[in-house]
TrEMBL record:
Taxonomic source organism: Caballeronia sordidicola (Burkholderia sordidicola)
Lineage, highest ranks first: Bacteria, Pseudomonadati, Pseudomonadota, Betaproteobacteria, Burkholderiales
Protein name (Swiss-Prot/TrEMBL): LysR family transcriptional regulator
Key words, A-Z: DNA-binding, Transcription, Transcription regulation
Family (UniProt): Belongs to the LysR transcriptional regulatory family.
Pfam families hit by this protein: HTH_1, LysR_substrate
UniProt GO molecular function: DNA binding; DNA-binding transcription factor activity
Domain of life of the native organism: Bacteria
Family matches, as InterPro entries: LysR-type_TF_proteobact-type (IPR058163), LysR_HTH_N (IPR000847), LysR_subst-bd (IPR005119), WH-like_DNA-bd_sf (IPR036388), WH_DNA-bd_sf (IPR036390)
Domain HTH lysR-type: 5-64
Length: 294
């Protein structure tokens, strides 16, 4: 064990990388910034290698090849120690999951409750994060991110691929199926998703040139679906997010054979450093639920 550096130095190194700087690491560890700097310098001297490139500009630090090699081992070891200490104290470590608001409310929330019932010893914390998740600030263990197909990363785990099609309330369907051009068109404001833009469906329905005056735009997909369920107009539904509404009969497809694949995916991303012991179990559970498990 003589080759293992002091735990305090490894903690300083891991915290500085995870939090993006010495000052944030110092605040988390309740020490001075100079103490963090000294611990990391001592760690580098003991290993005979530079671990971090320091900068006074934006970003602060970045990993060297040696630092990239050490980080997973240091993070994993610290996570195991944290888990063991929590178990001895009788306090289970919280597992934090993030996703955007529509996915959280329409797909994820119920499944996290089911996971919690199956593994009651693991406290769950679900938070809303739009766009790129801030893993370090919110101690996120697992993020579910809505990503354009062309922006997928090599380590992304695809959880869901959506299908888009027009939907409405069952009361509106008889009228809407013969007079789309006379209905209000409910639309989510999303610039980079052509399949949820009514302008790209105008040829399918022979909409008149002034049809855009009938579009009502919302900032959230949840708002769109709420309005559609209330009979306010036609929406471009995203399955499987709206599947519960379809099964309950609160929404119906306008035309059963008309649909388009979505250009975005819901993907799973792990925290880049710390690992929760139940993380793989949760990922496997969610993949089972989505039907994407290999």
């Amino acid at each position: 064990m003589s080759n293992i550096p002091p735990l305090s130095a490894l903690r300083a190194f891991e915290a500085a990388v995870r939090l993006g700087g010495f000052a944030r690491a110092a605040a988390e560890l309740s020490v001075s910034t100079s103490a963090v700097s000294h611990q990391i310098r001592s760690l580098e001297e003991s290993l005979g290698a530079r671990l971090l490139e320091r900068s006074t500009g934006i970003g602060g630090i970045r990993l060297t090849p040696a630092g990239s090699s050490l980080l997973p081992a240091a993070s994993g070891a610290l996570s195991l120690l944290e888990e063991a200490c929590s178990q001895i104290k009788g306090v289970a470590r919280q597992l934090t999951v993030s996703a955007n608001a529509p996915f959280s409310s329409m797909w994820l929330a119920r499944r996290l409750a089911e996971f919690s019932a199956r593994y009651p010893e693991t406290p769950l914390n679900a938070i809303i994060q739009e766009g790129e998740p801030d893993f370090s600030r919110y101690d996120i263990d697992l993020a579910i991110v809505h990503v354009a197909e062309h922006a997928l990363r090599s380590d992304d785990i695809v959880l869901l691929q959506e299908e888009v099609f027009p939907v409405c309330s069952p009361e509106l369907q008889p009228f809407a199926s013969t007079a789309v051009c006379r209905c209000r068109l409910l639309q989510e404001a999303h610039e980079n998703s052509p399949e949820i833009d009514w302008r790209n469906w105008s040829d399918d329905f022979g909409l008149p040139e002034d049809f855009e005056t009938k579009i009502v735009r919302y900032s959230s997909f949840s708002q769109v679906i709420g309005a559609a369920v209330g009979g306010a107009g036609l929406a471009l539904g995203r399955s499987p997010l709206i599947d519960p509404e379809l099964r309950s009969g609160r929404l119906v497809r306008l035309f059963p054979v008309l649909s388009r694949p979505a250009s975005w995916r819901f993907v799973v991303r792990r925290a880049p450093t710390r690992r929760h012991r139940m993380l793989d179990t949760l990922i496997e559970f969610l993949r089972d639920e989505s039907g994407t498990k290999e």
